[in-house]
Amino acid sequence: MKGILWAALAVPVIGCGSSTGPELDDPLQTVLSAPQELTLGYGEEKSVGGSVLRVAFVRVVEDSRCPVDVVCVWAGNALVELGIRMGMGPTFPLQINTTLEPRFADWNDVRVTIVELLPQPREGDPPRPESYTVKIRLERIF
């Protein structure tokens, strides 16, 4: 009788082994098999790979970039805050610069880099927060 009970308990355990497919073991491997670029509007959140990875454009912390209609000695910098999360999990803030370090942020094997922040400032007419868009690159790191 013990042998039958043991066999009945072992069958569910054997059926619960880990998957060998990368999409179940590491969903980022499937979602970011190649680098991807996203453009986000101010306050916007987008998902990559269904809803596996979600990225949000939270705010521009500072923008000291040289206006496009002015000649500057230095290009200036903008500091952007993004939020990143897996599925419906907690959101982690990332702050990334356009010119200064850090120019990228690593989170859970994902590297996030700012490709472009628009609009460029103009002399005497700084961009309104809601007018910003940010283009980012997401790539898997190992």
What does this protein structure show overall?
By secondary structure, this protein is α+β, with helices and mostly antiparallel strands. The protein has one domain: Tick-borne Encephalitis virus Glycoprotein, domain 1, CATH 2.60.98. The protein has three helices and eight strands. It has a four-stranded antiparallel sheet with strand order 1-8-7-6, with no helix packed on it. The chain is elongated, with a radius of gyration of 22 Å. The N and C termini lie far apart (50 Å).
What separation lies between the terminal Cα atoms?
Answer: 50 Å
**What integer is the average pLDDT?**
84
By CATH reckoning, the class would read Mainly Beta
Radius of gyration: 22 Å
Instruction: Give, in spatial order, the strands making up the sheet with the most strands.
Output: 1-8-7-6
The helix-strand sequence is HHHEEEEEEEE
CATH architecture type:
Sandwich
What is the tally of helical segments?
A: 3
- Name the structural class: alpha+beta
Number of strands: 8
Entry summary:
The protein has 142 residues and is an alpha+beta fold. It is built from three helices and eight strands, in the order αααββββββββ. It has a single domain (35-140), classed as Sandwich (Tick-borne Encephalitis virus Glycoprotein, domain 1).
